[in-house]
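Readers of this paper often ask what the protein records in our data store actually look like. Such a record has a labelled line for the sequence and another for the backbone structure tokens. Nothing more is needed to write down the fold, since each code stands for a local backbone conformation. The record that follows is passed on verbatim for readers who wish to inspect the format.
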Amino acid sequence: MRGFPKHINTKADVEFLTSDPEFSEQMQTRLAVMAQDSKKWFTIREVAEKEIIPVSDTVTVIEEKQPDGTVKKYLSELRDDPNSILERLGIEVKAEEVAEEKVVK
């Protein structure tokens, strides 16, 4: 192999690159970016006009202005993206591991 690979296709690739001293730091950086991209906002439902939703780190209300001038509100939730690269590779990541950049062991 010459240099850091463009594509990482298997969990074995991740394990090899993490254990290789030449590429370990680059792989940890790449995994941290993949971990940040592994969560997406998903629209759950439309919110009723007088409904009050408590907002948190994982739940929010999105207001969308319609062409006719009305505003619709939607409940969105931050969830694991089933189509993320880490999901495809079969790697589970915890938030504290991302913060410490210790994603794969």
